[in-house]
Amino acid sequence: MTIEVKLPTLLRVHADGEATVFAEGSTVGEAFDDLTKRFPGLAGSLIGDDGALHKFVNVYKDDDDIRYLEGLDTKLVDGDVISILPAVAGG
Amino acid sequence: MDEQGHPGFASPTLRLTAEQHDLVVAHCFDGLPDEACGLLAGPITPELEPTGEVHRVYPCVNADASARTYTVDSRDLLRAMRDAEANGIDLIGVWHSHTHTDAYPSDTDVRQAMEPGWIYVLVSLKHAEPVLRAYRIREGEVAEADVEVS
After folding, report:
1. What is the mean pLDDT of chain B?
2. CA distance B150 to B117
3. Contact B28, B121 (CB under 8 A)
4. How far apart are CA A49 and CA A46, in angstroms?
5. Is the pLDDT of residue B5 over 90?
6. Cβ contact B74:A65 at 8 Å
7. Neighbours of B83 (CB within 10 A)
8. Which domains does chain B have, with CATH numbers?
């Protein structure tokens, strides 16, 4: 299925400057695999060395943080929108 | 470095209306004793550079609820991102308060600055009069940006 993915500004440079890209996959992890095949520059920003979601990004499926769903195994259906958000923090 | 010793990246002038400026500062006072934070949205160029104009100001929840650190609540961030997109603009920066220190990025601010294109606004409440200043932060380097309030 085709999923719409919204990118924050810092990741757009790795995706030809696009704010919205499309990915195929039945889970968030599969959609990210598909995205990083086409946009290899995104790889290190989405998934950490440990294979888990990078700690500096928050990923929402529609209105829900996937950390409170099933993480990268969260299932997707046609029409779902994934939003990738940078962690905005400081001291 | 340029001849003044500043890191070599230009920053647009941040242009706030008096109303936007006052909203940012008021949200910082409202957050006391904790740090307060929020997001700015405006136009960006095809090169993903903000023009410096601000069309929307989004006061956000500090998810850390702390006087020493801030994290923009990710739901507020999502809402702001959607509202900006619906209005044909983009998030261009973030502001937060320093309750007892100057309006300059702390080491933590520099370390955690993720968006090279963003304008990072600091509001110091250390003195009787609040002080608002703006910066670019890239790869550990800090460059001050001019601020115009009109």
Report:
1. 93
2. 23
3. no
4. 10
5. no
6. yes
7. 15
8. 14-149 (3.40.140.10)
Within an 8 Å CB–CB cutoff, is residue B94 touching chain A?
A: yes
Residues A74, B4: Cα–Cα separation, whole Å: 51
**Residue B40 DSSP SS3:** strand
Tokens 């003044």, located at residue: B4
Name the residue of chain B whose CA is nearest to A11's CA. B115
ω before B105 within 30° of 0 (cis)?
no
What are the sequence ranges of the domains in chain A? Answer: 2-86
Q: Is B13 on the interface with A (CB under 8 A)?
A: no
What are the tokens at B127?
A: 């003195």
Answer yes or no: is pLDDT of B2 > 50. Answer: no
pTM over 0.80? The answer is yes
Q: Which of A19, A85, A91 is the closest to B78 by Cβ? A: A85
Predicted-complex ipTM score: 0.89
Residues 4-23 of chain A with CB under 8 A from chain B are 6, 8-10, 12-13, 17, 19
The minimal CB distance from A90 to the residues B44, B46, B70 is found for: B70
Residue range A2-86, CATH number:
3.10.20.30
Distance, in Å, from the CA atom of B15 to the CA atom of B138, rounded to the nearest integer, reads 21
Return per-residue pLDDT of chain A as tens, 91 residues.
Answer: 899 999 998 899 899 999 999 999 999 999 999 999 999 999 888 888 888 888 888 999 999 999 999 999 999 999 999 999 999 999 9
